[in-house]
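Our preliminary data section would be incomplete without showing what the modeling component actually yields. Below, a chain of 128 amino acids is followed by its predicted structure, encoded as tokens that our downstream tools consume directly.
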Amino acid sequence: REFGLDFPLVKLSKEDYAWHVEAAAAQAALTIGEATGDGGKAGKSPYRSVRDYHAAYASKSTTPTEVLQKLLNFINETDSVLRCIQEVDYRGSFLSAAESTKRWRKGESLSIWDGVPVMLKPVEDIKG
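Predicted structure:
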């Protein structure tokens, strides 16, 4: 129990090690900032906040539909390695993004969250 370790470290097989290297490379290759089109330039973090999306939509530099398409491309490019997405409601996502894009074009967004992509754990009830 040196250094407070309760479990011994297990040496990875060559296959498992290769998988982890590939997963790390996939994560490093694309960040959410790159996926949404600004290359992480909006701030110090490569990840976008609700305020970042709101500002981008308000300035008309992008739309919820464009962001959704880029995020789905990001998921399709990385999830075969990362395996963290269980299900994507493509139809519902595109319908929601299209409706949000229309509201933003009219200057009638519902709230700061309008058009912000959200991922939920599959145990969450998202209808009703």
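The chain has one domain: 13-106. The chain has a mean pLDDT of 78. Preliminary results of this kind motivate Aim 1 of the renewal.
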